[in-house]
Amino acid sequence: MAKTLEKVDVVTVGLGWTGGIIAAECAKAGLKVVGLERGKERSTADFLRVHDEYRYAMRYELMQDLSKETITFRNNRKMRALPMRQMGSFLLGEGLGGAGTHWNGQTWRFLPYDFEIKSMTDRKYGKNKLSADYLLQDWGITYDELEPYFDKFEKTAGLSGDAKNPFAGKRSSDYPTPAMKKTPILKKFETATSKLGYTPFMLPSANLSESYTNPDGESISACQYCGFCERFGCEYGAKTSPEITVIPTARKTGNFDIRFHANVIEVLKKGNKVTGVKYIDNQTGEEYIQPAEVVVLTSYVMNNAKLLMVSDIGEQYNPETQKGTLGKNYAYQILPGATGFFDEQMNVFMGAGSLGMTIDDLNGDNFDHSDLDFIHGGSISMTQTGTRPIQTNPILPDTPVWGAEFKKASIYNYSRTLNVSTEGASMPHKENFMSLDTDYKDVYGVPLLQLTYNFTEQDRNLHKYLTEKISTIMKEMGAKTVMAGNPITNYDIVPYQTTHNTGGTIMGSNADDSVVNNYLQHWDADNLFVVGAGNFAHNSGYNPTGTVGALAYRASEGIIKYSKSGGSLV
Length: 570
Known about the structure:
- It is an enzyme of class 1 (oxidoreductase).
- GO terms for molecular function: flavin adenine dinucleotide binding; gluconate 2-dehydrogenase (acceptor) activity.
- InterPro entries: FAD/NAD-bd_sf (IPR036188), GMC_OxRdtase_N (IPR000172), GMC_OxRtase_C (IPR007867).
- The structure is a single chain.
- By secondary structure, this protein is an alpha/beta fold.
- The chain has a domain at 3-180 and 212-333 and 428-454 and 496-565: FAD/NAD(P)-binding domain.
- 23% of the residues lie in helices and 19% in strands.
- Strands 1, 2, 3, 9, 10, 11, 12 and 20 form an 8-stranded mixed β-sheet that branches. Strands 6-14-15-16-13-19 form a 6-stranded antiparallel β-sheet.
- 54% of the residues are buried.
């Protein structure tokens, strides 16, 4: 029988960026907060020996244990969904900091177009630009309304940037720290794209260019350009992460308590209110009930949706009738790119997760789509993230994939190969959704989340267009041979792509087409908040973290307001 604990003001489920921000802001406001984290505690001191590519990048030291909990996947409803047995397409973090520990640090604000995509697209191109199979909708909030929260997140993170993107929304202040170093590799991209008529700028970075103290008094170190960011924690404390910023801030208040190894299996509901959560100590097997005035789901996209589903909160999306909102509008990204083989050697082994230059000329609606068979676009970047040898064996197509010739070519090309890549936007489709699996359960006896997803015609058309543009850029950079990325066909769960999953608990202006309002307050229970990239009504041409951070700050403001007066916030 589950043991009932003392009631608190706020309980958060997960302690990555969203849980950390909610905890810090609510605790500073005097609310008693408990954070439940199913992983273990960790800090900068735990990463002193982190430069181990095999342990962290290949064996996923910081990731979720898929033998205990995973998802099932299928491309369409006619297929049987099968469990994802190994990390591949995306990487599910676990432990204090969540995915905010193993991320690269590329931190964007979504474009003004993103938040009003349905209205702006219809107004400019007509209502039939995309077929009715695409579930395009506005977010229920505008960029201008969200801008103060973007600003707050950037100051918490100490972001480094140059604010020279001509297509970005208006800013209330500059980046807190200057842009990172512009290396010879980035200058090569800058020269080529400028000649082609584009406008390059430094990528906004949470790998800081200089030491910084944020408004809460937390110190972040300067980046050492060691090249071990993605899939790794930072031993210098220079990659802004929740465990070196918002978590310490929350702890200093005396109003915040963390419980590790606490795996939440249900949100408890009575009438039109939630009353708390049930969790299992995954070391002892003991069950607990944590009552709370406010419950905030701050775990990853898929777990937030799963918890609502197993707790029977909200109406599950039905692709046949297109009724229901929970699990709807799952979206991913496309990754057009091109590899260039050069004669000269370059220092590709050095870098940082968000050291790069970008052009936004082909992102959002920054170019005319009147005669194109897709909408939106993608940010095109040259990043110098640190090329690691186990995962990198660049060879030309006619080279054997084993033996002496392979080894010779791989070693030769290692320091003579560059990649220009794109994060391409993904539009929601009626056949791409999340639900509960009817056959498979996790180690706790809870049904697994089932993902039904495939690339669409919109994805394929956009991918082809951007691949051609990128190949032209790579040629202009002086590559002797350019290998363009292959066209996309069916989505595959195995090869790594990005951990930029979105949708399933989308936000909006009414309960008919969204799960939460623009404070991320659940329409069916006003003391339940759901925070994360699951709130995105579609995916953009950027990393999601900056927009997630902004939404978390707005949600925390809403939770504090609710705690004082109750009721719906909109």
